[in-house]
Amino acid sequence: xxxxxxxxxxxxxxxxxxxxxxxxxxxxxxxxxxxxxxxxxxxxxxxxxxxxxxxxxxxxxxxxxxxxxxxxxxxxxxxxxxxxxxxxxxxxxxxxxxxxxxxxxxxxxxxxxxxxxxxxxxxxxxxxxxxxxxxxxxxxxx
Length: 142
Description:
Layout: H1 6-20, E1 35-41, E2 48-54, E3 56-58, E4 61-65, H2 76-83, E5 86-90, E6 96-103, H3 107-119, H4 122-129, E7 136-141
Antiparallel strand pairs: 1-2, 1-5, 3-4, 4-7, 5-6, 6-7
């Protein structure tokens, strides 16, 4: 039997609301946070996986972070991007294809990380909870 955890249930609810409300999510504490649906290809299964992710933008790029609430390992979508950086991004009515670039260190990663922390202070708390460096991911439209 395949049990579904609470995060999977929450993600499914957010995805359903996102699509029903034309990209707006007003429940689960997300009223003031921008959410994108990012579709990756499962690294192990090859199946499509949809993850609702908070994001910011820089020009045309979408910036997400692989925080997983400060857990000891990266989120599943991050491993999928490592295996295949081609993703689909849903923001608004027009989904589009993008390539993901993982920033592991350097001044660009630090600048984008600092920007995320200014906008969402919880990310600093997540980083403080874990020994791993939380990755910043840039999604660039094809």
